[in-house]
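We close this part of the discussion by returning to an individual protein. The encoding preserves chain order, so positions in sequence and tokens coincide. The sequence in question and its structure tokens are set out directly beneath this paragraph:

===
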Amino acid sequence: MSAMLVSLRIRNLALAEDVFWEPAPGFNTISGETGAGKSLILGALKLLLGDRAGRTYIRAGASHCTIEAEFQVNDSAHFNKILMEQGSEPCEETICLIRRILTCNGPSRNFLNGSPCTLSALKVLGRHLVDLHGPHDHQSLFSREEQGRLLDAFAGALEQRNQVTQSRQKFLRLLAEEDRLTRDQLSLEREIELLRHQVQEILSAQVIPGEEEELLLQQRIMTNAQRIAQISSQVEERLEQSVTVPLAAIFRLLKEWARLDPRAMVLLNLHAEISEKIDAWVREMRNLQPTEFDLQNFDRIQDRLDTLQILKRKYGSTLAEITAFANRTQVRLEELTHTKSRINQLKNLLKQAKEDMEQAAVELSQQRRLAGPKLAQAICHHLHELGFRQAGFFVELRPLPDIGTYGMEKPEFLFAPNPGEPSLPLHSIASSGEISRILLAIKSALVEQDEIPILVFDEIDTNIGGEIATQVGVKIRNIAKQKQVLCISHLPQVAALAATHFVVEKEMVGKRSCSTIREVRNKERVEELARMLGSKATSAMLHAQSLLELTVT
């Protein structure tokens, strides 16, 4: 066994004030009077493994209830992977601890290996640990999806089943992407065309930073060229009158002074510097004088300014903003161009994904066609031993119009309880006794393929008796050779075949009823089996003893 329940502790859950239970490996049976609280075990396990709970579960007068379980996991690597995927702590050596606390005034608190966890994490782990079958849990057997899973498990095709699911998901994802992109393709083409025009218009204009200010300056100078020439001429004339001529006269005087007093050479040198600066100033002034008005050049400047103005009206209030707009547009254009290329690429990807999906589905169908008759034959064998001597069981593959999540067809289990009667889907079977035996036959046929290590049956033997009850017990005992089985039973024929027998009893503690569970052996077990037979008379005790001594091959 990859895992087993080592212990279960229940505090303040309904009638259970403080119950501690240590089931054994193999076949464990639980019996007790009606109303003693046998189903508390199943209810506690369901709560521990993710079922939602209401405040009514909490024992009256208590503020909270606690359920704790210790599982021994021999395949710790497998379960640690599941735990880590859920964000929980791995098992310490081979022990997995689960605890759930239900409170009257708030949400439940859940723990995996001592660390808080979500309810969904408990559910995920529970699906890999325990297979629960209560009075109404056979409803899942009516589902075609579950029937398909059972067939694929028997065929050893669960990996192939997952491959079909994954390849179909990939195909649908690509198909949705293509549909979305293709649906928007016309607007995509229009946007690409517009963006290309905008980028081309800006790039062809060859916008230069600071260009506009320079053009406006040139335009202003050319517009005022005549007045600038007049001002320049007047400045030069006055400079000649007030500076140039006096400076020449001063130069002659300073030259004479220096001849008489060499110390005046410093004045003569300073005069030379002043003269050079004035000459440079005059040259610069002449350079700034506008040339003869060039109408062609003026028109060129005006045209360029008009072009820049148009760009500013469309793409930004400044040349910097226009350049930034062009950069953004180019990025968007590249994205849209990539999108268009993606549409073309998707055609090839879709073709390959469809081929992969179809290939995976065909291979799964082949495995199902081979396994279907073998599974039906195996289930029929177990059904015959469970009292359906001439019943027929069939696995039908109903084709789908398109490949579905789990393949090209929906497997369906059909059952014909009597010869000459048509085979019907399982959901058409009215008798709970029949469906319970069919469930047991399916579990028996799939015991080697079913990876869930702990199997719980809550009164699976309802509405059967006699020799069939013994055969039910034999089937459960055979299953228990590979799994830990916890079976709540009211039939002594079933209970007698268990390796370990527990009794749930209701007793008064003070003025309150409490449920307890204890193992019965030897004489106590004989007495419990006799009670289940309906009497503790000597004949019933002898019958009970014979049931324990009976060896069923």
About this structure: The longest strand covers residues 392-404. The mean pLDDT is 85. The longest helix spans residues 319-385.
